[in-house]
Amino acid sequence: MVKIFIDPGHGGVDSGAPGNGLLEKNITLQIALKTRDYLSLYKNVTIKMSRTTDKTVSLKQRTDMANRWGADYFLSIHINSGGGTGFESFIYSGLSNASKTGKIRERIHHKVLKVNELNDRGKKQGNLHVLRESSMPGVLTENGFIDTAADAKKMKDKIWIDKVAKAHADGLAEAFNLQKKASENNESTNTNSETKSEKYVVKKTVPGFLTALDAKLGTNKRTTVKPGTYFVYKRIAGMINVSNQKNTAGSWINPEDNKASSQSTFKVGQKVKIKKTAKTYATGEAMPAWVKNRTFTIQQMRGKNVLLKEISSWVKQSDITK
């Protein structure tokens, strides 16, 4: 089992760098939470985070946490400032690119640079606390400059955040040879006989996504699927690809989005508490005890799940109460 420790830089009273109406602590948390979600789709990996909300965590607390847990890798996510532009990554000073740490960093750096539309500022070394005091290989990524308008514009784009997060996860998955869980495997699998003639009724307008994973996470919406009867092209991980034409790829939808909203007694903006009996987030990760019996705000609703604003996490409606 590979143990990955994800560290969203700054938080709480430490806002990190400000710029263009943004705070570093918020952007790093958005990327880190998405990275966690993508990594959770792989087998034989466990994930711990230094923070999942906007709270203060000292540098020592971060590395102590990772060391006590016995993490196999430390990923620290940051945003740069100082008037520059571009992406760069750091490993501990004294380590070479040929070291184990350097080789893992190479995979992450390459994956992120491929999608972030930023200049490559290079693979660097630094005497940084989280790299020096952690007892496992690690990298610190600097994902653009918050005080440069062009870079900040990307940080305000949820699709960009999602791409950068997925690239971090992809790099780690490649470096540690992680395999997707069976239900999340290759979406290019041939259409099977069970779905060739199956039909599916869309009862209300729902979002259509590019991939099954997008439909599950609610990212990369590409179209709107209107009410009607469709052919099922594929089923993966509980998500359904529906099309107007038999044996033809269409849009991925989450069947939870197709359920009547009247079934829910909750609404956006409402204050709710997570029940003490809750065990996992809607995305499958174990739920820590500290979030239970606390009050949060519903930011978004999708089927039987709600997104809680303060912790930026999806929770099952059955696990919350007014």
Task: Give an overview of the whole structure.
There is one protein chain. This protein is of the alpha+beta class and 322 residues long. The protein folds into three domains: 2-175, Zn-dependent exopeptidases (Aminopeptidase, 3-Layer(aba) Sandwich); 185-258, no CATH class; 264-321, SH3 type barrels. Helix content is 25%, strand content 30%. It is built from eight helices and 19 strands. Strands 4-1-5-8-6-7 form a six-stranded mixed beta sheet, sandwiched between helices. It has a five-stranded antiparallel beta sheet with strand order 18-17-16-15-19, with no helix packed on it. A four-stranded antiparallel beta sheet has the order 9-12-13-14. A hairpin with a 2-residue loop joins strand 2 and strand 3 (22-23). Helix 1 (24-39) packs across helix 6 and helix 3 packs antiparallel against helix 6 (158-175). The protein starts with a strand and ends with a strand. Residues 184-194 have low confidence and may be disordered.
Task: Spell out the blueprint of helices and strands.
Elements: E1 2-8, E2 18-19, E3 22-23, H1 24-39, E4 45-49, H2 59-69, E5 73-80, E6 87-92, H3 100-115, E7 120-126, H4 129-132, E8 138-145, H5 149-155, H6 158-175, H7 193-196, E9 199-202, E10 206-209, H8 212-217, E11 221-225, E12 228-236, E13 239-243, E14 251-253, E15 271-274, E16 295-302, E17 305-308, E18 313-316, E19 320-321
Parallel strand pairs: 1-4, 1-5, 5-8, 6-7
Antiparallel strand pairs: 2-3, 6-8, 9-12, 10-11, 12-13, 13-14, 15-16, 15-19, 16-17, 17-18
Helix pairs in contact: 1-6, 3-6
